[in-house]
UniProtKB/TrEMBL annotation:
GO MF term (any one): magnesium ion binding
Organism: Aphanothece hegewaldii CCALA 016
Quaternary assembly: Homodimer.
Entry protein name: Orotate phosphoribosyltransferase
EC number(s) given by UniProt: 2.4.2.10
HAMAP family xrefs: PyrE
Keyword Glycosyltransferase in record: yes
């Protein structure tokens, strides 16, 4: 892997690189309480990978081709999605398909415009794809969707880094939203077992 380049690797090699990075840096087993209040035998700290230079580049390169052709922006709820929307936006510029990034605050800004959405103002009806790092119940990405819809944008799809498969996908489906994740939790757990059984 010493001659491996995140900038030029093919899709399947890039995906394997990102999976291994998630296992090395983000995935932990133990006793944890999630933001949803649920307890869990594992935890994924996505920011360990999304704020890693090569991790961010791999994420941007893998998510960009998943965006529908008419996508006019990517957006996500602060803080987990911030590095992901930025990575996808930067990669899109390199691919001559510049797509701006929007960051959605959890609470309206307390001064100035008092806005919920940071980033370029788009025309009404602009098509925006919501990005997320880890989906559990799905509520945080849904909050982003609702804020964007309130601003007059059209959101039809959510793309996540990891799906914990704990109801998020079903929630999105019930709201008429398409959902895809780069990885399922089962893929992470299988790879974690494989890697750790060889050590």
């Amino acid at each position: 892997m010493s001659n491996f380049s995140v900038a030029s690797a093919s899709g399947s090699d890039l995906r394997q690189f990102l999976l291994d990075l998630l296992i090395q840096l983000a995935y932990r087993e133990g006793d944890f309480v999630l933001s949803s209040g649920q307890s869990s035998a594992y935890y994924i700290n996505g920011k360990e990978v999304t704020l890693n230079a090569e991790g961010a580049l791999a994420i941007g390169r893998l998510i960009l081709p998943l965006l529908p052709p008419q996508t006019q922006a990517v957006a996500g709820l602060t803080l987990g999605a911030d590095p992901i929307v930025s990575a996808v936006s930067v990669v899109s510029a390199y691919e001559a398909r510049p797509i701006p990034a929007l960051i959605i605050r959890k609470e309206a800004k307390g001064h100035g415009t008092k806005a919920y959405i940071e980033g370029p103002t788009l025309p009404a009806g602009a098509k925006v794809v919501v990005l997320e790092d880890v989906v559990t119940t799905g509520k945080s990405a849904l909050q982003a969707v609702e804020r964007l819809q309130d601003a007059g944008y059209v959101v039809e799809e959510i793309i996540a880094l990891v799906d914990r498969e704990q109801g998020g996908g079903e929630l999105y489906q019930s709201k008429g939203l398409q959902f895809q994740a780069l990885f399922s939790i089962l893929e992470l757990q299988e790879r974690y077992k494989t890697v750790n059984s060889h050590q």
